[in-house]
Amino acid sequence: MPQFFFNKRLILLLVSIIILVALIGFSLRERSKLTWPEQFLKDTSGFFENIFDKPVSAVSGLFSNVSDLQHTYDENKRLKSRLDEYVQIKTEVQALEKENKDLRKIIGKEDDLRKFSPIQATVIGRNPSRWHEMITINQGKLQGVEKDMAVVTAEGLIGKVKSANNFTSSVQLLTSIDPENRISAIVQGDKDAYGVIEGYDNKRDLLLMKRIPYDKKIKKNSNVITSGFGGVFPSGQLIGKVVDVKIDQYGLNQTAYIEPSTDFYDINNVMVLKRDVRGAE
Description:
By secondary structure, the chain is an alpha+beta fold. It is 36% helix and 28% strand. It folds into two domains: 58-111; 117-274, Thrombin, subunit H, CATH 2.40.10. The protein is built from two helices and twelve strands; from the N terminus they run H-H-E-E-E-E-E-E-E-E-E-E-E-E. Strands 1-2-5-4-3-12 form a six-stranded antiparallel beta barrel. Strand 3 and strand 4 (157-164) form a beta hairpin.
């Protein structure tokens, strides 16, 4: 009896396998029309696929967008960092180019000052409240700087040494409002006109050259240079050019308004001129 049930089960298993293989073969062959069970299963699976596809795609797209956003943020951060480095490097290059340009001008200036002993210096201090009056340079007595020595830039005269310490010195600028700040000067022309630089017009940013004889014809744009007569400033140093001339109230002298050859707002590299003969200017 048990043998009979075992054989029966084996026969059913074999029949089931044969039917399954037949169904698989039937479903795999090319057909233009599906059976209704197949159509039902396919439609049902397609319906549920459409239901879950959009949320899954949305969630997947969200994570993808977040990842792209993070990547963009990191990339922008790197680019900003590189841009900051570029700006810093560009600023340093511009400063070096300007310093190099100033030094080249000074080197060229030394060729015209062989009868003097130029001492190169750098401006290391300037008081905002006395911007037009004083600067501090990094050379002093130990480098040969002494009081009343002339100080020039590549563009021309800027002032004289007011006081000297061992390592630094204070330079009084031509624009300083000081009654004792006077320079013997010449207006160049067909006939030179002599006068004295004393005073500064703050409103027009012009130097005042006074005591010019009334009968001297002064042309605008004429160069003004040092005369060298005082013994402090070497002769021939450019001061500026004439932009205006006025007769004084008594009609005996003229006053010329001089545009400085040097930009007094931007002084970085200078030379202190040492000469053998010095006197009161």
